[in-house]
Design brief:
globular, single chain, 164 residues, mainly alpha
């Protein structure tokens, strides 16, 4: 992996709780909240100064801008929700550009696993554990925050172990 292991270790304890909260709120309310996205971005802004060289830190804001513009376009086309687009943009600075191909594979695997797990749970009595969750009754819609948050947390965890 191209991400620096020490940078991943710096980010991990701050980012994982936000990822878990994103998974929860998207399943419970089909929403990724603005305060969560702002907190994720703030973590990068604060911890990135410590964890990354200054030039790398500043260039990572370009990741944010590119993913935000792409997310806005995808949201306008009806392909993804606004919260998903904002979360992806806030998560983008944490990703080392050299790991983009790995991240896409990781996201595809997490998305598939999350979709199967969610749809399986939705079709079983497990829904009684949280009967009011909006994602159980969302029809064809899927809580993408479950996959987005899971993929970011997994990426940083893998980076802490296998990073450069």
């Amino acid at each position: 992996m191209s991400i620096d292991a020490s940078a991943a270790l710096w980010f991990l304890p701050f980012v994982v709780p936000l990822c878990l909260y994103t998974c929860y709120t998207d399943m419970a309310r089909m929403k990724i909240t603005n305060p969560t996205v702002i907190a994720l971005f703030a973590v990068f802004a604060a911890i990135g100064l410590i964890a990354l060289p200054v030039e790398t830190y500043l260039w990572r804001y370009a990741h944010f801008a590119v993913v935000l513009v792409a997310g806005i376009a995808l949201n306008a086309a009806g392909v993804m929700g606004a919260g998903d687009a904002k979360f992806a943009a806030a998560a983008a600075p944490f990703i080392h550009l050299g790991d983009l191909r790995l991240l896409m594979l990781l996201f595809a695997a997490v998305l598939l696993a999350a979709f199967v797990a969610h749809r399986t749970a939705r079709a079983t009595p497990l829904t009684r554990l949280a009967p009011d969750w909006a994602s159980w009754h969302s029809g064809a819609k899927f809580p993408m925050g479950l996959a987005l948050g899971g993929a970011l947390a997994l990426y940083l965890g893998m980076g802490a172990v296998y990073g450069a």
